[in-house]
């Protein structure tokens, strides 16, 4: 009887723990309506692990990874390129590269659909990257250029739901088509790799990508869409 009671208590604790990871009616990382009474000073950049899921624009990926790594964040990179291409794409870029066997793609995404299976290999590779980062328990998943379509919507919803249930916030950089369910991501980041050409005044200067990532991981108030720079 004692063992049965202890088992039930353990199950209840697991359920409560999972529920605590998923805020009601809000995305993970978008749950604060006001600044917390106690500042998150303990969340130092060196404590933050970022799972970065790349796009077919490897140059933009490098800008982001370099900016985050230069600010001492720990970045893991899941590339859409093949292993050989990844080595070239990440040359000089800080961060660990994840690999996937989901398929290969050209830089413009033209070969992303498998002619035999009809599977979107870009989406499959990106989703595997998210799954790997969830298993690694990173502090935040950042996805560049996500393209949610009728063909991959269900698999993307499941992938991002898994991240949500694990309590890991998701940020989207310049999505082609974002998920319809806004509970699955905390923010959309609009990247400007050349802040000098942004045309913004001092009062409207974009956040850096690092500041945006730290804001989300610290669960501080933020807009649903944020303009960011890499410098």
UniProtKB/TrEMBL annotation:
Residues 87-109 have a biased composition (Polar residues). Residues 26-46, 87-116 are annotated as: Disordered. The keyword Signal applies. Residues 1-19 form the signal peptide. The lineage of its organism: Bacteria, Bacillati, Actinomycetota, Actinomycetes, Bifidobacteriales. Gene3D superfamilies: 3.40.50.2300. This is Lipoprotein. Keywords: Signal. It comes from Bifidobacterium longum.
